[in-house]
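Let us practice reading a record.
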Amino acid sequence: MDSNLRREIILDNYQNPMNKGLVDDDSYIKIKVNSDNCIDNLDFIIKVSDDKIVDIRFDGEACAISTSATSIMIRSLIGRRIEEVRTILINYKKMINEEAYDSDVLGELNVYDEICKQPNRKSCALIPSKAVEKLLEVLDNEN
């Protein structure tokens, strides 16, 4: 991917993140996620119906990488079946950790395919996947 396009996508999602702001609704599952080496401290809520993600929202303090990755991840997951979500998460984590992955399933999340060049930013890019994995664990435990 062109480095200028990559920067533009990341910056746009940082400045105008999708689904930022929580709602007070008991039908959502809530998770708090933070980073050990950055300012990232985010609350996530997710609503699932009929094995499909209906909505994901987040709020809190986070760096540009974490905020933009969260925005893009949310856009990539809303409307997807849980099994599709798991596939995206697996491939996203593999990409971040420099393992073989299927870029076709990641779509716009591929903008982070060079985050490995900044190892200290990996944990920031993994914040949204960490949150969604925790949310899916809660769902699994409820079923």
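A brief commentary: The chain is about 45% helix and 15% strand.
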